[in-house]
User: Fold Mannan endo-1,4-beta-mannosidase from Rhodocytophaga aerolata.
Amino acid sequence: MPETTVTSQAKPGPIDRKATKETVSLFNNLLTLSKEHILFGHQHATEYGHGWSGEEGRSDVKSVTGSHPAVIGIDFSGLSGRPKEEIEKSKASLKKQIVDTYNRGGIITVAWHFSNLVTPQTGFYWKDSVSAPAVKNIIPGGSHHTQYKEILRTIADLANSVKGKDGKLAPMIFRPYHEFDGDWFWWGKSHCTKDEFISLWRFTVSYLRNELGVHNFLYAFSPDNKFNSEAEFLDRYPGDEWVDMVGMDNYGDFGRNGKYNLEAGIKKLKIVSDYAQKAGKLAAFTETGLESIADKDWWTASLLQSLKAEKMQLAYVLVWRNDAKSSTHYYAPYPDHPSVPDFMKFYQDPYTLFEADLPDMYHMK
Assistant:
């Protein structure tokens, strides 16, 4: 496989030349807004929250601020590795989340906690001595390649069905194979070679786009926080012609287990932002958060301060989910949480945008 090429684009825009008008507009509007603002996102925000699930029009963030997050995170995990009826149910539920968000003018980003096709019993995590390496088996020529193509067809069927009330397909930021520089997922660094990972990425994009006619995806590349230089960040990068957005997941530098290294976190975000500007890409802080928000001033003292520390251009920052049943697994405040006053300062800061603050993201001025 040839070395990854990094080429500057004269005019930034989606890598899919047939991207829908709305997808092109989303790319351009995110790029423009990122020069002065950052959008706030929350995983599974409208599906469930702290102590509730499946209530129309609700999100914990909206209960606190009056507005949904600007970016809503969903997951394609339910589209494979289960009985057909369950997959159809997942598809219907995802479709509703996507279409409702698009109709409100919000933005959808998609993670993919994808179960190992070779050892399905192990799920998406790598389990030593049980999990089998899967990347080499699902890329072209692999034992499970045909099965992988079927799963991509399920994703394409969904992507090509999510029409808003304007009759247009809702664009999505698709972020497969995230945190690939760690070893906890089966697509992680220790479980496949660099060439295998790049081959998987390129095949996935080209099959969805060229064979299955998906033209409403922007593709996001996001390692965890294990890099300290641009070269390390780009270690498994498939090339500029295969990526629309570069990002990073980073809990470790932002207070996980009581450990803070904001300076390191800022430096890594700057690497991501600088590369995006050079290559004509979008950049984002694709996942972060502090579980249980144990530090009540985390929003302004850690997160906002870090986001503003350097002149960065980040389209959005997304915090992880609020579990419906767990009393401790949550990353956004809910009413009466001790961090609410600080979160309101974060919300009111002109730099941060929530759904109610967004211009029309799907049309160009």
About this structure: Residues 1-7 have pLDDT under 50 and may be disordered. The longest strand covers residues 282-288.
